[in-house]
Amino acid sequence: MQEYKVENGNERIDLYLAKLLDVSRSKINKINIKVNGKEVKNSYIVKENDIIEIPEIIEEQIKAEPEKMDLDIVYEDDDVIVVNKENGMVVHPAIGNTKHTLVNGLLYHSKELSKNNGEFRPGIVHRIDAYTTGLLMIAKNDKAHDFLAKQLSEKMTHRKYIALVWGVINNDTGTIDAPIGRDVNDRKKMSVTASGKEAITHFKVLKRYKTATLIELKLETGRTHQIRVHMNYIGHPVVNDPIYDKRKLIDNTGQCLHAKELGFIHPKTKKYMEFSCELPKCFINILNKFEEEL
Q1: Is-same-fold flag (2-61; 157-294)?
Q2: Which residues are catalytic?
């Protein structure tokens, strides 16, 4: 299901959704709509803070269009692309957000992208959050996509992150093994829950500051918001995280989380490849504030 929170109400729900999703009312009238957990008629008048749920089948109507962008391509051949995603860029289109995503830029950059994930996620093998920066692997054909996706599912890829988290971590290394699932109180968030899926994160301390710690993390699994949820779970939320960090945000550039290293076996040559990229300016700017406190 796709979920949306109403900001400005007092309008029929079919009109509201048609404008929001940029689709016709006739398409809206063909789907079941829930508001605050209960199914409603198309004549329902939306109210501020209503939570609307619609089926994911609507995503099939999303058409991502090519868009010229200055993508940071780290590597490219006939099968794969490795891109260093910038801060604030959403990976793929979704309802209400069909432009300025990485997919839009990839469609302009290359005519060859895998179609395993449908028309609105061409080439996308895995994702990182909009305000997480760093490396992603993109498949240019379906065979490469299957090969790369299998490595992810079998925990064969190498993924190393750098994060700045609140609080001083005393242990030099640690492992967080705690299942992650949808938060029962807020469907936009994830949380550690007994009914969740296996999630394992390893971390190592790189530097300690007065009120924060710079750490390196390696993922065994790839759950939604995994690092952000796990670090918040042990009392060290990622600095500047707009969802899981309850402190006042330092700025609006997003969480201090960067996908620094990415390694995988090439789908055609079967040789191991590894890539690395430096911390982005937005991360460094916040890090410098903590350096000044030393």
Answers
A1: no
A2: 129
Please state the domain extents for the chain.
2-61, 62-154, 157-294
> Which fold does the domain 62-154 belong to in CATH?
Pseudouridine synthase (3.30.2350)
What is the chain's pLDDT, residue by residue, as a tens digit (294 residues)?
A: 677 778 767 889 988 887 777 677 877 888 889 998 899 999 999 988 888 888 754 555 567 789 999 999 999 999 999 999 999 999 988 766 778 999 999 999 999 999 877 666 889 999 999 999 999 999 999 999 999 999 998 989 999 999 999 999 999 999 999 999 878 777 678 999 988 889 999 999 999 999 999 999 999 998 989 999 999 999 999 999 999 998 999 998 989 999 999 999 999 999 999 999 999 999 999 999 999 877
Helix (DSSP H) and strand (DSSP E) numbers for the chain? 6, 17
Q: What is the CATH number of domain 2-61?
A: 3.10.290.10
> Where does 157-294 sit in CATH, by number?
3.30.2350.10
Q: Pick from 276, 267, 263, 277: which is nearest to 80 by CA?
A: 267
Locate 115 and state its tokens.
């179609």
